[in-house]
Amino acid sequence: MGRFDVSMLKYLSPEDFRVLTAIEMGMKNHEVVPLQLVASIASLRNGGCHKIIKELIRHKLVCFEHAKVQGYRLTCLGYDFLALKALTSRHIVKSVGNQIGVGKESDIYIAANDNDEQVVLKFHRLGRTSFRQIKSKRDYLKNRKTGSWLYLSRLSAMKEFAFMKALYDNGFPVPKPHDFNRHTVVMQLVQGHPLCQIHDVEDVQQVYDDIMNLIVHLANYGLIHSDFNEFNLMLSDNDKVTMIDFPQMVSTSHQNAQFYFDRDVQCVRDFFKRRFNFESEMHPKFSDVKKVYSLDIEVNASGFSKEIQEFDKVLDEMNDQDEEIEDGDESKNKVSEESEQNEKNNENLEYKKELEKFELEDQLKEEKYAETSETKEALDENELAEMNDKFDDYLSLENKMYRPYRDAGLKQDEDSDESDNYSCTTTTSTIMDPRMVRSKVRKSLLQKMKTEKRRIRNKGETSITTQRNREVNDTIKSSMIFL
Q: pTM (2 decimals)?
């Protein structure tokens, strides 16, 4: 763990930040942003923009790529500087100190605000080698197939800030959220230590009960932590538990909600057995959860869809109606048996009448269908006869056009079986749907166009290859001199 060097931040000019934001905006729909696009977004001249980008590359805020297309992209340090610039302009952060924590998807630093109060800066770093299975582990992409790591880090920070704010407002033991920008979250500094670093506790039973009650209380509000272990729990000197790390939280309506709930409980049980040699028979189950408040709707937790929300609304309306009916007069709810029987008889009579109507309609439909099928069969036979006559005429014309040296009389004297077979095989080809022919022609044309495009090479690629060839030739000539 080292110090975050932000000394360069105070030497950057507004034009430098303008170019950095231009590259950030271009990366929304470009993997690598070309120089012309950066200059047009930043509203600077090409020469001035190129000079600024050179300085930013020297300080490792921007990276130059020339593998497929020449262009520029932001580095993690450049994205950090953009976030810190925004937070300092809001008077949220004044100075940045040492690193106090490293995770598989984040870096945590201590900082100070304008009131000289210590706060925590959490930079989300999705895309590290330790954590790259975003599609299977998180739902940040949703319907998208791809996305840059910087954009995914930004989504992760937004989600964590939303969860933290909602939990803090509802009285849960979490750090107080101050603000966020891009992939950076600013929160309160918790006075304590991670549970994984603690070896002695005064009352193990009480700490165990507090943690298990926290899991159940969180589920009663419609949320499951999904990563509830000793690394994401802070314990103060008074043995008070504080919960951290929230991007992976899911709703209790998630299809795997019971699995995540049981896994959180089992992680805590295994840790207390391993560290404190404490094992309890009593532990919460997913069936013990009684939903009190739908906090997962407010924060739009993963696993909670609009269909489930509409279904819950209908259920609530039905429950309200049932309560109103129960609160009504008992005399209105009591109905005599005779009236019920009469109503049932009336309903049965109406039901029988409706069945008779449906049966009559079905009979009429069947008769109409039989008549139409007979007429269709007759029409199909007539059409086939006409098409066969036309096809024979077409065959004779085709032979005259393409084979004039053949004698028509000799062909008629040939075996009748062979001519019949020939006519049968060609009828299938002539009756072919013209749409199928068009689709096949289109496919062949598209294939030709693709092969032609592959042969064409971009100007940038050719220039790079020629430059490399020249360098190789120069090295060969220089080596030949010494021989």
A: 0.61
